[in-house]
Amino acid sequence: MGWLPAPASRGRGRAHRVFHPLAGADLRVLAALLAKAGSIPPGRWHVPALALATAVGRLPFTLAEAAAGHWLPPKEALPAPVFVVGYWRSGTTHLSNLLSRHDGFGILPPIAVGLPQEALGLAQLVRPFIEQFYPKTRLIDRVPLAPDLPQEDELAIANLSPWSFYHGVYFPRRAGDWLVPGLFLNGAGPDELRRFSATLERYLVKMTVQQGRRPLLVRNPAHSARIALIRSIWPDARFIHVHRDPLTVYASAVRMFRTLFRELAIQRAEVDVEALVLETYPALMDRLLGDFAALPPGSGCTVRFEDVERDPLCELERIFTELNLPGFEDGLPKFQAHLRAVASYRKAEHRLAQDEITLVRRRWQPFIERWGSRMQPMATLR
Questions:
Q1: Is the pLDDT assigned to residue 15 strictly greater than 80?
Q2: φ, ψ of residue 77 in degrees (nearest 5)
Q3: Among 5, 308, 368, 379, whose Cα sits 20 to 30 Å from the Cα of 351?
Q4: What's the predicted TM-score (pTM) here?
Q5: Under 8 Å CB-to-CB from 77, ≥6 apart: which residues?
């Protein structure tokens, strides 16, 4: 087809610069964001213009799928999701990708996250075309991307709801209004919380049906701050908390957020990424650990990423056992095949200067004492 890009141009990871994630946003959410965001430089006008055009063009499919949603079963008739939580760069992706190889889990594929309102209809129609533009690896690292690997539902939430930290990434001039409030739902009144809960429930119920009524495996670091809210929707939801050497998390998260702002921001504005990570990690961990302590037996499992790296099958078996998940032995062949497929992957090496280590140790002392850290400072240049 002449209108398709040349094969050599596909999969290079640049499609987001034209087809920004907001191209899948709800029209009302998109209009509200643009009204509050402030000025956008001329070189980026194409992003909101294309997002508005696609929102209008999708509208018949959006309305049809919303109408069909009345026929979805109640959440009580479906298995509750399994949520993988933990701060960004703690290993949630690796563990989720590994768990997703088990046939007992449903996933959130990239197309359903990008077009959440039309996940059952239009998304399936355009999937063969859209998948040609998928990058081979993620923006933030070299972890492989594939249509059958699970994606974070936060991108879907950002397209469906006015409450998401991603809005602060897209519009950094309003980062103070959207980053931390979107993560912790600070300032959301009772009605707004009910709408957020209803949006999350409706989307995950729809995707559970689309995935053959299997329990969804949902990975989202932002849900680390929403465990109590999630349990108000699904009292029998199960949670896996992945933690990692905090100093490594700091170094890697700073790099990740810098990449996100560089690649996804529609406005030009400086954000103090180091301060963002320093402040949100302890706040997120405090809330997560408090909510985890309140979980009933069999609802939560804590995993050390370094243990997953060292003995992944042993840790998987422990997760299945502690959460009363069936079929570990059935999934072994696919777990092993996935581990072989990613065996050549090499993580980026993270180093911090001594003054940075001192700062992080002071600010994150309770978590470093709890989980430890082996990071050594960079050698001093002479």
A1: no
A2: -90, 0
A3: 308
A4: 0.91
A5: none
